[in-house]
Design goal:
It is a single chain. The chain is mainly beta and 264 residues long. It is built from six helices and 15 strands. The chain has helices spanning 39-43, 53-56, 121-129, 165-168, 242-246, 257-261; strands at 12-16, 32-36, 51-52, 62-66, 73-77, 80-84, 90-92, 98-99, 102-105, 111-115, 138-154, 173-189, 200-207, 213-231, 233-238. A hairpin with a 5-residue loop joins strand 6 and strand 7 (90-92). It is globular.
Length: 264
């Protein structure tokens, strides 16, 4: 995004799919973050989606999310969708794989920073915050290179009646890696998205060999390159499922969100 557009007002469009499951045409550009469903719905156990990953391709080549019935962590890198399985292994998913929650965009190199010192996840996020032009925009963040430590998780596939996410993550499986190369796929959302997305950072990891990954719980950088993409527009499409139609989402941030993000 060009600097002259940096403070373009955020565009919020809520598109509800019809009962037929046919998605209306949504016009986006490269400076748009596209999302299906809300984090509140996922927290409440709405794990059935109505959008396939192939339908996400027109909206981005970089993203994250999860899959039907919470079956693994989603990663999209260079337009390829991967699943981080329960054991941390990585598989490519076909286009007809359904997602109940995903966030994608086309990654542009608005700012690139080389970092060759050790930082843990909290330190890294604080450092990136200091590089941002505004705390009120959406950002896609890619961190690629060498990590001295990486801690990720994935969650087992759930069965109905689905438990809330705070219960589902109690059965998460954690994978720890040392001296590993790979890419962190991340988004930073502004504080006012409570209930819609995760305020602050949400990050997934995939290694260079595409063999291990998951939701990032902690890390230690060694020698990495950080790419920051300022994203002024936000488009959200709501799922056309009975689970979403009937759930009581309330208002504001869902209880337990930070504990879920941190794997506690």
């Amino acid at each position: 995004m060009r600097i002259s557009r940096l403070f373009t007002p955020v565009l919020l469009i809520l598109m509800v799919m019809g009962a037929t499951g046919c998605s209306p045409e949504i016009r986006t550009d490269r400076d748009t973050l596209f999302q299906t469903s809300t984090i509140s719905a996922l927290m409440k156990g709405v794990y059935d989606g109505s959008m396939a990953v192939g339908q996400l391709r027109p909206y981005g080549d970089f993203g994250l999310g999860t899959f039907q019935a919470l079956n693994g962590e989603m990663l999209e890198l260079d337009g390829i969708f991967y699943r981080a399985n329960l054991d941390g292994s990585i598989t490519v998913v076909p286009d007809d794989t359904i997602t109940p929650f995903a966030v994608v965009t086309f990654l542009d190199n608005d700012k690139v920073i080389a970092v060759n010192k050790q930082m843990d996840l909290n330190q890294l996020q604080s450092y990136i915050d200091g590089q941002l032009a505004s705390q009120n925009l959406f950002y896609a963040v890619k961190i690629e290179g060498k990590f001295s430590y990486m801690k990720t998780r994935s969650v087992p596939e759930q069965v109905k009646p689905y438990p809330p996410l705070t219960e589902a993550v109690k059965n998460q499986q954690v994978t720890e890696s040392h001296d590993i190369e790979g890419t962190v796929i991340g988004f930073r959302c502004p504080p006012y998205v409570d209930g819609v997305n995760v305020p602050g950072y949400h990050c997934h990891f995939i290694d260079k060999a595409r063999k291990v990954g998951g939701h990032v719980l902690d890390l230690q950088t060694a020698d990495v390159k950080i790419t920051i993409d300022d994203t002024a527009n936000f488009v959200m499409e709501l799922p056309g499922t009975q689970g979403f139609y009937k759930v009581n989402l309330g208002t504001g941030a869902p209880a337990g969100l930070q504990q879920v993000e941190q794997g506690k």
